[in-house]
Amino acid sequence: MAYYDDETLAAAQATLGRGLATFLTPSDDPSVVHGGADALFLRNRLRDHVAALVADIRSAYPTVKCEVLWPYDVNYPTPVPVAAPSLGGRLNYAVNLPAEWRLQSTSGLDTMKVEALAFGASLRDLDLVRETVNLFQSFGWPGSALRYLAPVFGSATPWHRELALAIGAGIATNNLWAFDHICLYGLAVPEPKLERRSLLKVA
After folding, report:
1. How far is CA 121 from the centre of its chain?
2. Phi, psi dihedral angles at 146 (to 5 degrees)
3. What is the DSSP letter of 199?
4. Which among 47, 86, 112, 199 has the fewest CB atoms less than 10 Å away?
5. Over the chain (203 residues), what is each successive 10-residue block's mean pLDDT?
6. Cβ(133)–Cβ(169) under 8 Å?
7. Cβ-Cβ contacts under 8 Å for 110 (sequence gap 6 or more)
8. CB atoms within 10 A of CB 17
9. H helix or E strand, kind and range, residue 114
10. Cα–Cα dist 182/124, whole Å
């Protein structure tokens, strides 16, 4: 969502009684700007916007299932990778993860789909992938209400390992993105079992 469009600025003026603070980077510390009030305003605005969409859709389609696709790479609490930070930041994490979304019971959602395309496809950091896979379960979401989106950007990405981490964490519904890459590279889904690094030859 935009921070400084006319509608948001007007809402900030009405809610905060002043103009919205100017944030310059995704890693600005939200707690030091007016005691965190501006970041909280933005976070609650996101929460309320999604809740309004869900309510409107459910009024027309009562049996609909509503889900948010939540990217952990751009919302990672600290900028990564350490050598050349380009993803994440404290402000992004604070604004884009409403407190209510940490639990299914307060989220207003049926499912939460998590992804971190850059962690697997660009950084190829399976430790960060594992953290992503387990994030919402660590908050208290049941695995049955979670979905995972694994990136397939060519045949050299470790997507099968990423998928294995998600399945191993009890996430039963996993999507591969993008399907055209699977077709383009003729990838086998699911991939065959990985071979071990060393083989024992028996005479």
Report:
1. 15
2. -110, 150
3. -
4. 199
5. 90 97 95 96 98 98 98 97 93 98 98 96 95 98 97 81 95 89 76 52 50
6. yes
7. 65, 66, 67, 145
8. 7
9. strand 111-115
10. 18
